[in-house]
Amino acid sequence: MKLTDIGTIKDVMERHGLAFQKKYGQNFLISESVPQKTAQAALDNCGSGARTRAALEIGPGIGTLTCELCRRFDRVCAVEIDSSLLPALGETLTEFDNFEIINSDVLKVKLDNLVSEKFGDADVAVCANLPYYITTPILMYLLESGVRFTNITVMVQREVADRLCAKAGSAEYGAITASIAYRGKVEKLFGVPAGCFYPAPKVDSAVVRITLYDEPAVKAANEALLFDVIKAAFAQRRKTLVNALSAGLPNVNKELVTRVLTDCNIDEKIRGEKLDIGSFARISDGIFNAM
Ligand code: SAM
153 C-alpha to center of ligand 1: Å? Predict the structure, then answer.
């Protein structure tokens, strides 16, 4: 069955009484090469092959990317919110015995339990064509889950991809850029035009891969504080860093921030978007030691 064929998609959906659920961001892939390249990119950075390799997919839809994952990984587990898709997946993935589906909102799944239960000590990659209405919450949920994924290879809106890969000081650089830079190396792998989906969305997309560090490249003494510092710095973009941090962090006043910035050799008039993750870590450590 060729799942990237519009005729096949319509046929599967009709036979199973399905309609595209806009509220779940259902735009299915109709390009043959995009799911192949996406699954391969996830596999390429998922361990050496000495251990079992497993993929966690979010939102399999009717299984287009899932098939490519099942062909490459030893085990695949997919989390799908829309229960009406499950009978269709039973049909489209019938040739694979290394696949399991969980019917849930991914944001409600305890990821550490799921990964240890389904994959044991395998090397695990996340691979998905993400529903665009909750891209950032899903990425943050994955990164804050504490699970040691090898990489997160995902399709996102092109603007989000640019934001994730942005350099400090550029207009696209934001709290999510700095937070992700702490956890791993981000690469934009390739662009995907809107015409590669059915129905076609209004925006173009891109596949990005976040290859997670075993240990962060810069280590903050208190990670929770680091993320609070990053959020506070970007919460009020028009304020200088001293004002933004003293307004956004409890028990931190202007004097303390000014002292920490001086110690770190950072201009107190600077704005958050100019700071790379190394600078954020130094500021966070300075505040942590002074409190
Ligand atoms: N993987 C398929 C493909 O590439 O053709 C479908 C991708 S479609 C953009 C997004 C998928 O995510 C849909 O199947 C949708 O039902 C599912 N989804 C949306 N919100 C979800 C959530 N909170 N948890 C799990 N799956 C979700």
Answer: 15
Kindly state whether residues 229 and 197 are assigned to the same domain. no
Task: Please tell me the total count of domains within the chain.
Answer: 2
Q: What mean pLDDT comes out for the span 68-81? A: 98
What is the pLDDT confidence band of residue 239, given thresholds at 50, 70 and 90? Answer: confident
Structural domain containing residue 247 = 223-290
Q: Quote the tokens at residue 127.
A: 């691979």
Taking CA atoms only, the protein residue closest to ligand 1 atom 3 is: 28
- The number of the ligand 1 atom at minimal distance from the alpha carbon of 197 is 5
Using one digit for the tens of pLDDT, what is the confidence trace for 146-173? 899 999 999 999 999 999 999 999 999 9
Cβ proximity of 267 and 240 under 8 Å:
no
26 ligand 1 Cβ < 6 A: yes
Instruction: Give the integer Cα–Cα distance in Å for 54 and 70.
Output: 9
**Ligand 1 atom index nearest CA of 59:** 12
